[in-house]
UniProtKB/TrEMBL annotation:
This protein's name: ABC transporter substrate-binding protein
Organism: Halococcus dombrowskii
Positions with biased composition (Low complexity): 59-74
Gly residues bias: start-end ranges: 37-51
Ranges where the Fe/B12 periplasmic-binding domain occurs: 93-411
Amino acid sequence: MAHDDPTDDGLTRRDWMKRGGIAVASGLVAGCTASSSGGGGSNGSEAGNGSGADDRIQSSTGTSAQGGTTRSGSYSVAIEPVGSVEFERPPERIVGGWGFVADVLMALGHADSIVGLARPGFWYQGFYELLPSVKPRNVDEIPNTVSKSYSVKQELLYELDPDLLATDPNRFIASYQLEPSKVSTLATDVAPFFGNLSRSKRAPSWSNWPDGKSYRYYSIPEFVERYGRVVGERERASAMIDLYERTMDDITSRVPPKDDRPSVGLLSAFTNPENKGYFGVIDPIPEIDKTYELKQYGDLGVVDAFADEYDSENAHYDLKLGMEGLLDVDPDVLVFDEAVNALGGNNVYGNADAYEGMLELLRTDPVGKQLAAVENDRLYPGGTGSQGPIINLFQTEMLAKQLYPDEFGAWHGLGEIPENERLFDRQRVADIINGTL
């Protein structure tokens, strides 16, 4: 939509945004110009496959499953927990979260619509550089809409004047300590929310706006499909989903039998005994299948070396160990979570050298040198959890080669895979991004 151009009825974009907000049961606002329905379902629910009546774009004279009728020329798209959101035209200025939705929008050819992110540094750009004729974004130029102390920069949101807040409003409430009334104000005065936090299993204390009931998770293809409709790119979305699902089906069908897989330890790339006093061990198996943060580990059937060791009392990490404790378990392979950010130069954790320091420590420490993964040179960078379809394609390929080289070929390093050893078609991804369908 034109940013401040009048609509056909003489209203500016901001005017019709303000005019059209419809309050839902909780008193918050979910949509632009149509009534909204909150999410049902339950945490971890697999109900719904993206083809239900409440998920379809309504025609200009169509009637929704809830009985509402769209205005001429408008369309609506539904997502839990915000319900059905009506649009006059595709949004051109979008504020997102940590990089997931940004990767989805890149896949849809709309990366330039991102005008703000909660954590721009977590939108890893390195994989886009491996795609022909695809221009990465400079994340240093994208405003950070959440402060280092995890509070929403509300004045900045007004200044950015977005058409859409592509994030789960519960993120603002549960993680950024924003009062529901303030979220309602943002939805009315700034832009509607359209998002669902499916990164990982939501905590028991999750706010579950709007009605206090838990709501469903969405898979990566379901997000691509919904955002494709939001930005008017249904054909691009369909093409990306087709490529993505065919690739995943091929890779996962080739995973070796469990007895032939190495044991794996997933460690934080930025936490070690020298800088924190311990290694931070992460459970690599997603608690909810549809969540995307650890998706490649679940899809590739990772054998977790620490499966019987976790301590539920640990904060943040599933397990904290010293060097001796690591040797006691002695995984065949060590993968370092979020290391691609360090290799890509993103200083998102305040210490870009911590990953290299981790590797040096393991290779020089008298105990660390005894680890099988060190002796066999099986220390690998892990991916970012802020992964949509493109980043997940690369990171699934990366992990498949790291863990199962006999089946998928050797991993030579980021950006070093010969064309005949790649597990998906880079040119096809680029063509979809660029609209060559």
